Every structure is written in C-alpha cells, then in structure tokens.
Amino acid sequence: MSEVSRYLDPTLVEHLNHMQLYARSVVQGGTAGLHRSPLKGASIDFRQHRFYVPGDEPRRLDWRVLARTDRPYVKEYDEETNLRCVLLLDASGSMAYGHEYGTKFDYAARMAAALAYLMLRRSESVGVAVCGARVERFVAPHTGPTQLSCVLEVLEQSDPGGPGDVGAGMHDVAERLERRGLVIVLSDFYLPLDEARSGVAHLRHGRHEVMAVQIADRDEVEFPFGAWTRFSGLEGEPVRVCEPAAMRGEYLRRFRDHQRGLGQACTMLGAEFHSFVTDTPLLDALRHMLSRRR
Amino acid sequence: MTFLNPFMLAGVGAAVLPLVVHLLARARCRDVPWGAMMFLDRPSRRRSHTGKLRSGLLLATRMLMVAALAAALARPVVPGRWGGLARNVPVTAVIVLDRSHSMTLEEAGRSRLDMAREAALQILATLRRGDEAALVLLDDEVEVRPAGDNLQALARELAEVTASTGTADVLAGLAAAQRILERATGRARELYVVCDRHAVSWRNVTASAAPVMWLRQQKTVRLCVVPVGADDAENVAVEAVNLVGGLAVRGQSVEVEVQLRNYGQRPYAGVDLTLWASGPNDSRRRLKTTTVNLPPRGTTAARMSAVFDQTGSHVLTAEIKSPGLPGDNRFDTAIDVMDPVQVLLVSGNETGPEVRRESFFARLALAPFQTAQKRSGDGATVTVRSAEEWTAADLWRCQVVVLANVPEITRAQARALEQRVYEGAGLIVCPGSLARPEAYNSVLYRDGLGLLPARLLEPTPADGSEATTLGSLHAEHPVFRFASGTAAAAADAVVGRYFPAEPRADATVLGSYASGRPFLIEGRRGRGRVVLMTCPLNAEWSTLPLTPFYLPLVQSLVRYACAPAVPARNLDIGEPIVATFEEGVEQAHVDRAGERLASTVGAGGTQVRCSDTRRPGIYRVHVRLKAPQNPWRTVHFVVQRSRAESDVRSLSAQEWRQIERATRMVRLDAQAEPLTDAIESGRGGRELWLVLLACAVFLGVCELWLGRLLAKEAA
Asked: ipTM more than 0.85?
C-alpha cells in the first residue's frame, strides 16, 4: 500500500471514483464493456436492418417487418466491449528535470497511475510500457483487481535516466498490440518531430486511438534564466554555455514551434494532444483530458 | 590634437569595464542540468550572426560611450579645418605690434605702421565673443595692454598707435607675450607678431633665448608672424655730428664732421646737407649747406667749418633730404662753446734764450695771437710758470696743465696735480733735456699707480745714433683727427733724441716712432686725461716744432686733454640729465619741445637733474643762479635715439628659416592670402568636448535601444 500511495494518494482516488474515460472510436476489448466494438453482437444499441441470408439466426429476424412486408429482414445491434489501453511512459533522462513540483517523470507516473486506476475500476484492460531508448518494461493490458498492482509496481521500479526515444517506444508498442485499443503516451516529446509523427502514425495505422500527453516543466516553458549558464544535458548531450538573456527568444520560439508542430501532427493523424506543465494540479489535468472525451 | 585636461584621458581606460564585466559574468556562470537541450542547439547561422552582431554592438556601444565620456572630459582640441566641426575654444590672442622707427617707412603712400595696424585689426576681426586679446607694443621699451575681452576698445587703441623713434626687440615682445599666455590656461593661445622684415628687430631671437625655448615647448601656442612692407628698402641716415677738435671755442673756427650712411643698395649723388646751429637764446641759424655723394651701403663724412660768436650751450643740427626713414635725416648734437682754454704751462727751461724754451714753441702754437700781442682769436690762454715758482693755486684757474721739460716734481706738487686731474683737468707731460726720468718715475709714475701713463727710461744717446721719425699714428683717435689727409707731413719730422717709455697696462699708445717706441701715450685718472709726449716741445731734440704738423698737434692735444672738463650734453635714452653749475641754482626747469618735465635740484643746490629722458630730442635746462645780476641761462641736452633702426636691411630667406626653425612660427603673407582666411584656416583650438558629449549621449540612447531590442527578442 505504501508503494501505491506514492503515485496514487487517497485524495486523488476519491476524485477519480467520480470520473470515467471513454473511448472515442471503436475498440476491440476482450470482454463486454462500455465501449463500442467493431463487432456486431448483442446489445441494446440498434445499428441497421439487413436482408436475411441463409445461415442467420432465425431469432434475429424482425418479425414485425416480415409480417408487414413479407420480406425477411434481420436486425443488427452493436457489440459493446471493454477498453484496452496501454500507458506508454517516457523514462528518458530529460523526464528527470524538475524542482519545486517534482520531476516530469513523477508527474507522468502519477498521471499514468490515476488513469490506470480510473480504467481498471471500470473493468477496462490496462497495460503499461516504460521506455527509454526502447521499451524497457511492458505489462500487457489486462483487467482485473491485480492489474493495478502490476502497473504500479512497474511504475515504482522505473527511474528516468539515459538517452530516450519515445518514437521508438511507440513503434514497439504498436508492434506489440494485436487489437485496437487506446494508447496514451506520457512524455515530454523532446525528440525530432518526424520521429514523433512516425510513431503516432504507426499507432494510428494499427487503428489505435492515440492520446499524446506532453509533460513539461515551468522552466522549460518560460526559460527564466538570466545570468550566464552552463547547461549540461540530462541525456548525455554536450555542455552548452550561453547567455540565457540572449538565447531566450530563440529558445522559446523553438519550443513553441515544436509544441505547435507536435499538436498539428497529432491532429492530422487523428490523435489527441494534450500539454501540461508540472505545476498544473493533476486532477485538473485529468479533468481537462476526460472532459474532451465525453 | 591636443587635450586641455590630458589627465582625464586616463578615463578612456574605463572603456574596457563593460568588456571586463561581460567576461566576469561569463566566467561566473551557474550549472544547470537541462533536459530540453534540443532547443538550445546553436541557432541558425543567420540568426547566430545577427545575435552575435547585436550583442557585440551592444558591448561596443557601452565601451564607446565610456570612452567618449572620458575623452569629452579630457577636452580635446582639434586643429585645422576639422576644427570647424566643433565648438569654438575661447581664444587668448596676443598681438605684438612693432611700432619702432622703421615702421614709419612709407611704401606706395602708406607707412608700414598703417599696414601693421590694418593687419592687427584683421586679427582682431577673427576673434569672437568670449575671446580675449592683449596688445604688446614694441619700442625701446615694451608696452603691454593686458588681455581683455573688450575687443572694440582694443581696436580703438590700435587705431591710435603711433610710430616711435625707438628700436624694437621682438624677443622682449615674445617674453611679454609669454607672461600673458602663461596665465591663459584652458584657452587656445595664439601669438601674432606684426612687424616689418627689419633684421635688427629680430637680432636677439635665437634658439637658446628663453621665450623662444618656451614657445618651442608649448605645443598649444600658435605663433604667427605677419610681416608688412617690402623686402627691399632704401635709407640714408645722418649717423653723427662731431666737432673734429672735440672742443668749440668762441671765435675760433671749428670743424664739424657729419657722418652719413647709405643703408640701401642704390648710390646717391648730390644729397643736400645743411648744418644748423641753435644758440643759448634758441635762435637758429644756418651754418653751412653742401652736397654729398653716397655709395651703396657705404658711409661718407662731410666736414664743414663754423665759428661760434657766443659761449654757452649750442645745438648743432645736420639735415639731409633723402629717401627712407624721415626720422634719421636729422641729427642733433649739443655742444658747449667755451671761452679759450686756460692752459698752465710749467716750463723747466725759462732761463735760456727764448727760442730755445719750450714755452716759446708751445705759446706760439696755442696762442699765436697772444704771442703777436693781439687781443683775441686764440683758442687758448697760456699762462707760463717756471718749474720753481708754480703753486697748487695756479692749478685751479687752468683747465690743462703742460709740464714742459720740468726737471722734477715734488711730492706735494704731484698730489696737487693728481687732485686736479681727478677732478677733470688735463695734463700733458713733455719731458726734455732737463727732465730726470727716475724723478718722474718715483713721483709721477709710482709703479703704475701715479699719473704718468708710462715708465720713462733714460733718453736715447745724444749723438743721434738712435734718431728716428714719427711712424704710425692712431688716425681714428680724436687727437689725430685733424691729420686726416696731412699725416704725411709728420713723417718729415726728425726726432734725434726721445725718452723710451714702457706704457702702463691700461694706457693707450696713440702714436709711435719709426723705431717702434711710443711717441704719444694716453692714460686716464679720475675724470681727467694725461698725455705723455716722449720728446720735448722745443726744437732741441727734434725738428717737429718746425713742421706744419706741430701747431695742430699741440692744439689738438690741449683740446683733447681739456675735453673731459666739458660736461656731457649728448645722452642716450633713459640716461638722466645732470646739469652742474658753478653757483647755486635759484630757479630751474627742464622742457622738451615746450613740454615742461619734472626736475630736481641737488648736490648743494648746484645741480639740476631730470630723469624723464625716455624720448629722444632736445631738452633745455633753464636755470637762474643765485649769483647777483645773473639772468636766466639755458643749457641744451640732446637725447640721442639709437641709429640701429636706420639699418633697414631685411631678414634674408636663410635668416627667416632659422627663426622659423627656432620658434615653430607660421609666416602669414597678407598679400598671398586674405589674412582672416589664413588665420581661420590655421586656427587650432576648437574643442571637441561638446561633440564627444553628444556622441556619448547618442551612444547611450543606442545602448538603451539595443538593450531593449535584445530584451524584446529574449521575451
């Protein structure tokens, strides 16, 4: 329990009990659930009438239509299934940045734990993938009361560090998932736009619903440094000495361009993009994310 | 470029402070582990260049701003036409104006002084509000008008400057200008010498002179010389007027010699020369008129005889009509016309036949009319006393004592003689056959301390084996001035015997025998003169008395010996007038050209003094003596001005170059270029501090703009 409380404190859990995550598109779950499935099955949501062909179950015939028109029609209903979600967490060195409000990795892990709790409570299947330069830990999506512990354990055991490639992680996850589901990528996305776009495209190609959540620190958004500063890269990049006052404009321009490009790429590929700063309360961030999915 | 506050230049070093701050800040940078390194990658080349350029520009702007501020505080002064960019520096200009006598020379209807005055006014016209100007007038004395900013008053004063009769000394003017300019700190200093090209004025300007050295060291003092007048000038001057005999005796024909000099390159023929005389009652009369010819750069002496009927003070004036300076076409000299000279002839041989006595020949030469029992016409009155009977009382009544063949002199007589000679009487010693050399040497020579100017040796043998003739005579000496053209007559005289003599160190040998032994030796004691003739006055040892040379020689000797008794009437400028009278003065005053001057009576009431003799001219001392029935008397004094100004020779090109090298002066030729343009174009002393301050302010604005631009970009 102590491990659980690190990323999932009771106050947050209390609020999460009143929230729900919906899938925007059809998903292929393993069990019946709240979400639409690409398969037709038994449910209360009528989809269409179809002319009877031999082999259809006679119980699906719409007797009223047959009586009126003397033509056999079959009633089809949407199948409802549960959500299969994979939480892809970036554990590269850059995620270790953060001061007052903790590191970006902590923020992302708390968000992942909250989402896992939220979904598992609704009997969704939740898996988790932690990637640095590649996917280092992977827990396949499952439902059940023990899945949350598995997810949290993976999160607890992960530490940010070293070079990262969340693009490669998305490709890896896309390869691992066999059925359509929801992939939530929690990262700072400090990688070239083409690589990010390629990873999202790969996931979308597998008809997965993708939610890209960018986590940034306030320093990275505002670049508030004044005096001469020696920046040493958290992912092993060479040291850069510069006068921030002179560099600030260029930095912010690049940062915003990158963020904007990331959002545009996601939009073009039909993915959802969110950007949060670590000083944003997690509950607010979750509400913001979930509100857009109703 | 020069700096008025050069020590502030050290502040320019503070320009590196922004750079130092920049480097220090860079060295003290903080370490930040950073994730978003991809956004800190080097910017694009264009952006990188622009950013670096702006940062560098900002740094350079800050450094330049500090440097400009420091340079402005150092108050730089730029010379030449670049000075037009800047504000005027207050100028202190000293105008040294030559108003010496040579400036009266006229060229094309205008005097050089007019030209100089015009040039000085043009210099003043180049000055502006806030500038100061001082005026230094060159004359025998330097007159200084201190520096002031009332230029109009100075211009009025300039317009009233008149030429003097003195000599200019440019060096003295430079020294006066130095004193003024040394006080003008923080201002542009300019020194203008406006003068003619007169070489005499520049005679003392040498590289080693103190003011010249000061000028060389002062880089901020601009020395400009504005020469006026032409290079070549003609001038003929009366140089001197002298009495040939040195003495004028009432009723006696006296020869007056007038010396003229041609300072020009052209010869002059038929120059009119007139000799005037003014008597005690100031009545002027023409004595003689003649014409003279003058070779180029040569001198001529004209002699004219004159007779004065009255005793007392006279002024002789020689005038010519010639080109050049008007002031030196006339020469005045004051003379005293005396009664005949009182001569006491002490003869050692008054017992033999008269024709063998020295007194016979001497009286015949000095007072021929008296000898011929005529009442007047002689230049001297001769009193003969034998060697045994003359007393000290006889000495007070005479002006010249002649010791003719006196065997020996007692010590008491020698003391009386010494006293009289020290008071100004003349003594002529003519030893003869009776004279004992050892007695003369012991009493009169006294190893060089006595009256006699030479030690007497034993006379040459009586057999005539060492007979000789008169040899070289000092023709320029006043004693032999009479012999001009007739010196050959002296060679006819045969001197059978004479006293060889060894002259004292301070004695002057005026003539010698053909043997080389001295014939005539002059010495001075006190105010009197002593002349030793080494052969007797009679014809016992020589044939000299039988030649035409004898009479003028004896008369000239007496006049020469008497001359010190005549008070000096011709003075130099500044030399005080001292008129001594035999009686006490009851009333006295001194005037010059009708202007009464301050005078004092002193020396027991027998002396009138006047010190105000700064101007040349004729001064008259009017006195009324206390003696009963004495009317007013007038005594003339002439204050002579220097004739150096008469030499109008101009400086040669080489001399100009030497002066230019010594003084770093700039010569401004008013004929080649308008003077105002030349002064303005060459004027230094325009300060740049305002421009630099404006630059600093502008750079400050630029710094703010660049800083805000960079800050805006950073935001």
From this structure: no
